[in-house]
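Data availability excerpt. The first of two example chains:
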Amino acid sequence: AAELSAIDPDNADEYEANAAALTADLDALDAEYADALAACAGATLVTSHEAFGYLAERYGLEQVGISGIDPEAEPSPARLKEVSSIIKDRGVTTIYFETLVSPKVTETLASDLGITSAVLDPIESLSDPDGDYRSVMLTNLEALQAGLGCA
C-alpha cells in the first residue's frame, strides 16, 4: 500500500483500505487454522515430500517427508521402510501428496499400509479458475482436519 500510494497518491486511501482488508482476512484465516488444528498439535503430517514445513511448524505439526525437499526425487527403499515404521508407530491414517506431483509413491505406500492418501495444494498452480488463496487454504484445512483426526 505504501509503495502504490507513493506512485499513485490520488488512490492512497483505496490502497490502504485494500491492504487493511487483506491483512484482516489473512489474520482470520490464520485464526481458523490455529483453532481447527489445535487438537492436532503434535500430530505427524506425512507428505510425499517436505513441502509443508512452514505450515507444520506454525500449527504444531511434525512433518515427515517420504522424500526430501525435491518433489521429483524417488525415495530409497530404506527411506520407505523408515517412513512406514513411523506411520505404524504413530498411528498415522493419511499420507498427503501435492497436486503437481505424481501421487504414485504416496498412493502405493498408503495402499500397502492400509491407510488413505489425500491432496494438499501448495498453491503453485490453481486448478480451479474460480479459486484463490483463501479457497485453496480452506480446502487444505479440511483435508488436514480429516486426515489428522482433528475434525
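And the second chain:
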Amino acid sequence: VTTDGLTFGSDTAAANALDDYEEGTWTPDLRFGGNNTGLVYTSRTGKYIKIGGIVIARFGIKLQGRGSSTGSARIYGLPFSGVHSSYYHDAGTTIMTDGGTDSSGGHASVFVTDSTRLAVRQGAFSNQNYDSSHTAFTNSTSLFGTVVYSTIA
C-alpha cells in the first residue's frame, strides 16, 4: 500500500493505484413523465459500491400506490452521475412483479440516461423495445434491479 492508494505487484505508479473505493446507500425515486404525483411506496432501497470510475448500483422499489402521473418510467436518485451518448448506455437487469397491462411485452431492463437517472425499458422478440410507462405498473408493482455504469468517459 502506498500513500497514493493500493498498488499491485511491482507497479508503484500513482496513476495505476486503486485510490477510490466507496460503499453507501441511495434512494431510488420512480417517476412517470418526470412526475410522481400521488405515488406511494411500501418500501424503496438502494445500495452501491464505487470502485474508481465504475459504480454497481442495486435497488428495490415496492409500490403501495402508483399515483396519477403518466408517461415514461424513470428512476431518479443515482448515487453518481453516469456517462452516456447516442450509442453508449450502461445497462442493467431488473425483475418486475405484479406489473400492469403493459408489462407483458418482455422483461424490463434499465439503462443510464441523461447522466442522472435510469430509463426503464421493456423488450420483446422481433427487435422491439420501448420505454416502460405508467401502464406497466399497478398499485402493488415491485421492481428490483442492478446496473453497472461508468462515471468517466
